[in-house]
Amino acid sequence: MLKKKQSSTPFYMDCWFWVKLIVFIIFALFLVWPFSSMITNAFETGNVSGFTLDNFRKFFEKKYYYSALWNSIIISIVPTLFSVIIGVPMAYFMTRFNVIGKKLWHVITILSLMSSPFLGAYAWIMLFGRSGSITEFFANYGITMPTIYGFGGVSIVLTLKLFPYVYMYTSGAMESIDVSLEENAENLGSGKLRRFFTITLPVVTPSVTAGALVVFMSALADFGTPMLLGGQDFRTLPVLIYNEWLGEIGGNGNLASAISIIIVLITLLVLIIQKNFVSKKNYIMSSMRPPQEKKLKGIKRILVTIPVAIVCLVAFLPQVVVIVSSFEKTNYSSFIGGFTFDNYSKLGSRLWTALQNTFVFSTVAMIFIVLIGVLMSYVIVRRKGKTGGILDLLLMAPYVIPGSVLGLCYIVTFNVKPLILTGTGTIIIISYVIRKLPYTVRSASAFLLQTDPSVEEASINLGVSPIKSFGKITARIMLPGVFSGAILSWVTCINELSCSIMLSSGKNNTLTIAAYTDIVRNSIGSGAALSTILTVTSAVILLICLKVSKGKIKV
Amino acid sequence: MSNAVKIKDAVKLYGKSMVLKGVSLDIKEGEFFTLLGPSGCGKSTLLRMIAGFNSIEGGEFYFGDTLINSVPAHKRDIGMVFQNYAIFPHMTVEENVAYGLKARKVPKKEIEERVKTALELVQIERWAKRKPNELSGGQQQRVALARAFVIEPAVLLMDEPLSNLDAKLRVQMRTIIKKLQQSLGITTIYVTHDQEEALAVSDRIAVMNSGEIMQVGTPEEIYSKPQNPFVANFIGVSNFIDCDVDENGVLNVKNELKLEIPMKKKYAGKAILSARPEQISFGEGGMPATVKFATYLGDRTEYEVELSDGQSIIMSEYVKENGSIKNAGDKVFVSFDVNRVSLYESESQEVLSC
User: How far is residue B207's CA from residue B34's CA, in Å, rounded to a whole number?
Assistant: First the structure.
C-alpha cells in the first residue's frame, strides 16, 4: 500500500487546481476574450485597415455623440447626490428610532431596488407623461405640468430606484457603530447635531461612499430609463451603444465599441477614486455595544416616520401604478378606465414564450452561478495562492462593465467563427452567469470567512475524504450565503434588460424584453401586464427569501 | 489499536526558511507526549505534519512500522483536537461525535452506544441534542475531545486545546484530559506553550526552540535537569550567573564564592551557573548581597537581591517562623544548593553538571 519515501505535496490540492483552471477558462472565454475583441474593434473601422483612432475622433467631433457623454455623467452624478441626501438620513432614522412600520419600509426599499430597470420610467410616463393621468387631470384645469422627459425625469426615476443602495450600506454601518464613541462625544459636550456630523457621519463615510459608488455605476449603466424617458434629445452612452449597433440609423459596431471603452474608463476612474478615498479613511470598528433603538413616543415618533414613509411610498409608486393599470381597459395607446383581464388574455402565446424563456434562462443561469460561485468563493477564500487574487479582480469586472457593453462584447466576439453564439439562449444565459456571479461569490465568501479552516480539517482527520468533507461540511456551512446570493441573482436575472436586449433575437425574448418592446411600441396594456407578472414574481420570491434569511439580505 | 509514533529527521520549509531543522522523536505506544515551546518554534507545524495537513519536505514519519509520509490525511486514522474546537456548527453535539464513526461505517446501534459512552466520559450527555452555538467554550471543547477519541484512533493529536479557556477551566480540563488518556491508553501528542500545563499532563515532554528539539524527558527531568540554558529559562524561573571553572573543577563565582559542583566530565574555562529561586538560600559563608524587594506570598517569600557587582537574582524562601521576612536594604549572604543547580559550558551551552 505504501510507496517509497517521497515528499508529499498536499494531496487535496489537485482537485482545486482543476477548479481554478475551469474557472479561469470560463472567465477567459466569456470575459477576457470578448472584452479584448471589443477593444480591438474600437480601433478599427470598416473603411481603413489596421489601427485607427477614427472612431474616437468621430465621437468627440460630433455633438450628437459627445453630448451623450456629458448627459451620462450628469445623470450619474445627480442621482448619486440625491441618493446620499435621501439614503443617509433614512438609514439614521431607521437604525436609531422606532419608526412605525419599520419592516414594511425595509421590504419596500428592497423591492424597488430589485424592480425592472424600465418600470420606474414607464410608471412615471403613465402619470406625468404627455398623456399621463396626472398631466391630463391638471390639463383639465388649464395647468401645464413640467415635462417628465429629459434630464429631470431620468434623474428622479434613477434616484428613486437607486437610493436604497446608499440606505442599505449606510444602515449596515450604523448598526455596527460602537455607541461608546457617540457617548464619548456627548460627554465631551457635543450637541446631538454636532455629534452626528463630527462622529457618526465620518465613521460611516466609507459605507456611504461604497453605496454611492454602486448608485453611480448603476445610473451610468442604466439603459431602460433614459431610453424611455430621454426622448429624442436626451441620449446617454448606453443608449448610444444600443442605437449604434442595432438602431435603424445603420449600425456602426466600431463606434459602439469606442463608446463602450469610454464608459468603462469612467467607471474605472470613479472606482479608483472611491477606493483611494475609502482606504485612506477606513475606521475599523469593533462594536462591543451596538446602538439601541431609541423609543420615541407620540408626535416625535410620527415625525420620524413621515419622511421615511413618503420616500418609500414614492419609490414604490411605480410598481403600484403598473399593477393597477394592467387591469385597466385600453384603447390603442391609452388607458380608458374600467376593470378588465383583457391585457393578460390578449398576450396569448407571446406570454408563454417570454415566461418560458425568462424562467429557463434565469434558472439555468442560477444553477451555474451556484455551482461556480461555491467553488470560486472557496478558492478565493481558502486557496488564494497567486491566482486567487486574479480571480478576485475578474469578479470585479461585472461591476465595472455595464450590461450593454458586455452585450456588445459578446456580439462582436460570438458573431463570427470560431464560436457563433449570438441569437441563442446560451449566450443570454452566459451573460447572466458572468454578470450575476459576484453576488453569490461575495455572500458565500462572507459565510466562509466566518468559519475557521480547521472545521474542514476536523472532518478530514475523522476519516472523510477532502472532497466529501467539502460537500458535507464546508458547502453546508456556506449554504445560507449561497441561497440568498442565488435568489438575488435569480431575481436580477429575470429583470435584466440592458445586456439581454443586445443579445436577443426575437424568439429568445424574455419577459423584460417583451414588456419593454411593448412599451416602446405604445402597446401599453400588454406592457403593463407583462411588467406586473415580472414585478409580482420578483416580489414573491424576494419576500420568501427575506422570510427564510430573517431579513438579512445583502445587495 | 494504539500506535507508537516515530519521526526521523523531519524537515519543513516555508519558501526558503527552514521551520523544522531535522527533528527526530520516538514516541512510545500509549504515551502522553507533549511538544512544548514558545510560539513560532515549529511545534504546531510538526503536529500538522503528523496529521497530514502540512506537506513534508524531508524525513520519515512512522505509525508503528508503517511509513505514513504519503498517506492522505483522511486515511491516517487520527483523532485531532483543534485550538478553536472546530465543531461542525450545523450539527448537534451527538451528530458531531458520531461523524467519524459514520465515516468508518460502524453499525448504527454501535454508533449510538459509543457516542453515549463518549459523552458520558466528558460529562456532556445532558447536551447531546444541543447545537454548538448553545454551548460554552468549555462544553465545546468537551465535544471536540469526545469527537476525537470516540473513533479510537491510532494517535490522538491536540493542538493547544486549552488556550482559549479561562484559567480555572483550563486546570479542570487538563485533569479530565489526563485521566481520559490514561484510561483509554491512546498514544497522544499534545502541543502547548504553557509549561505548567505540559508538566501537569505529560509522560514525556519535548522542549522545542526555532525548529529544533532542545530536550526530551519526563517532566521531572526537564525541570530538575535542564540540558541547556534555553530549557532552564523556558521551564520555570532560573538565574544565570557567569563564572569560571579552574583546573581542579572548582567553580569561582565572581571571585566571591567557590563551589564544588559534581560534573560529568573534566572541564576548565568559562561556564554559566543556573540556579532556580528555591535552589538559593540565605546563610553565612555565601556571597554578599542586598535585598532590593520582597514579595510575601503566604507560604513563601520571593526576594529580588542584588549581588555586589550589581546583578539582580530572584530567590525564594519558605516562611519557617513568623517575623523572619527580610526587608529591602538588608545586607545578606546567599549560597547555592550545589547538588541541585545546573552548570553549562559558556561556549557550547552544553550541560556540565550531573
Answer: 8
Counted domains in chain A: 2
A52-61 burial code (b ≥16 CB/10 A, e <16): eebbbebbee
Residues of A with CB below 8 A from B66's CB? 2
Residue of A nearest to B153 (CA): A462
Domain check: are A313 and A357 in the same one? no
Q: Which residue has the cell 474593434?
A: A41
Q: Residues A131-171: pLDDT tens digits?
A: 777 887 888 888 887 888 888 889 999 999 999 999 988 98
For residue A57, tell me if it sits in a domain: no
In degrees and rounded to multiples of 5, residue A510 shows phi and psi of -100, 175
**Tens of pLDDT along A273-323?**
887 776 555 554 544 566 677 788 888 888 889 999 999 999 998 889 889
Sheet holding B32-36, edge to edge: B78-81, B155-159, B187-192, B32-36, B204-209, B212-217
Mean pLDDT, rounded, for A163-188: 79
Chain B residues within 8 A of A7 when measuring between CB atoms: 55-58, 69
In a domain, A5, yes or no: no
Residue from A242, A224, A237, A236 nearest A124 by CA: A224
CB-based contact A457 B79, cutoff 8 Å: no
Q: List pLDDT tens digits, range A345-364.
A: 777 788 888 889 999 999 99
Q: Is A22 part of any domain?
A: yes
Distance from CA of B141 to the nearest CA of A (A): 13
The residue from A325, A357, A385 where one domain ends is A325
In this prediction, the answer to ipTM > 0.90 reads no
Cβ neighbours for A28, distance < 8 A, ≥ 6 positions apart: none
Specify the pLDDT at position A279: 54
Say which of B82, B100, B103 has its CB closest to residue A454: B82
Q: Are residues A291 and A357 in the same domain?
A: no
The whole-number pLDDT of residue B59 equals 92
User: Is there a single domain that holds both residue A356 and residue A499?
Assistant: yes
> A254 and A220, same structural domain?
yes
Co-location of A415 and A480 in the same domain? yes
Taking an 8 Å cut-off on Cβ atoms, the answer to whether A464 and B51 are in contact is: no
- Under an 8 A CB cutoff, do A10 and B76 touch? no
pLDDT over 70 (residue A367): yes
CB contact under 8 A, B70 and A6: yes
Between CA A303 and CA A294 the distance in angstroms is: 14
A459 within domain boundaries: yes
Q: Smallest CA–CA separation between A397 and chain B, in Å?
A: 32
Q: Which of B348, B184, B183, B186 is nearest to B267 (CA)?
A: B348
Best of A2, A3, A8, A448 to substitute, by most chain B Cβ atoms within 10 angstroms, is: A8
CA distance B75 to chain A (A): 6
Of A325, A354, A378, which residue is a domain's last?
A: A325
Average pLDDT along chain A:
83
A362 shares a domain with A252: no
Contact A464 B87 (CB under 8 A): no
Contact A3 B52 (CB under 8 A): no
Provide the residue range defining the domain that includes A482. Answer: 15-44+345-555
Contacts of A455 in chain B (CB under 8 A): 86-89
- The reported pLDDT for the residue numbered A181 is 67
Query: Is A7 in Cβ contact with B86 (below 8 Å)?
Result: no
| CATH code, A205 | 1.10.3720.10
Q: Which three cell numbers stand for residue B351?
A: 550541560
- Chain A residues near residue B52 by CB distance under 8 angstroms: 460-461
Q: For A376-423, write each residue's pLDDT tens digit.
A: 888 888 877 777 778 878 888 887 899 999 998 998 888 877 777 877
